[in-house]
Amino acid sequence: MRSPKAFMITIGVFYFLNLVALWPQLFAPLLPTMYPGVDLRQGEPVFQLLLDAWLAVGLGLAAVGAVLLWGARRPQHYLGVIPVVVMIELLFGVWDLYSGLVSYEALWMSIVTVVIHLLIIGWAIAVLRDTSPSVAA
Questions:
Q1: Is the CB of residue 100 less than 8 Å from the CB of residue 110?
Q2: For residue 134, what pLDDT band results from cuts at 50, 70 and 90?
Q3: pTM of the model
């Protein structure tokens, strides 16, 4: 399953699902599990600010997801978006490591998300390798 089209569709849909999962009304009840032992001040404006920040992450992922889904129609013309996915996953992977090791996020959640980032990065690299033109010796 190293085809660029399969990658673009799968990750595009996954990024849209992230937006749904990070929608404030759906995400708010999950935050206490994500940040155990932290007074999140639910019901106060600062809690809404936290939800809005996470929503911005979801909107950004959905924007890239839209490009991936659009590009899946002609994947050879949109291969340039795959390195963007790699960079997003590297950035969020570092963020998740930081959150689990230094911040207050539940360590198990950081580990799960880092594994997901690594799987996406590995798949993206495999797709890019399979689609690069061979260099004749």
A1: yes
A2: low
A3: 0.91
Separation between Cα atoms, residue 71 and residue 84, nearest integer Å? 13
The token pair that represents 43 in the structure block: 């019901």
pLDDT at 46 over 90: yes
Nearest Cα neighbor of 9 from 98, 113, 82 is: 82
Burial 112-134 (b: 16+ CB within 10 A, else e): ebbeebeebbebbeebbeeeeee
Amino acid at 91: L
16 close to 64: Cβ distance less than 8 angstroms: no
Number of Cβ atoms within 10 Å of the Cβ of 81: 20
Dihedral angle of Cα 41, 46, 51, 52, to the nearest 10 degrees: 170
Q: Distance between CA atoms of 66 and 52, rounded to whole angstroms?
A: 21
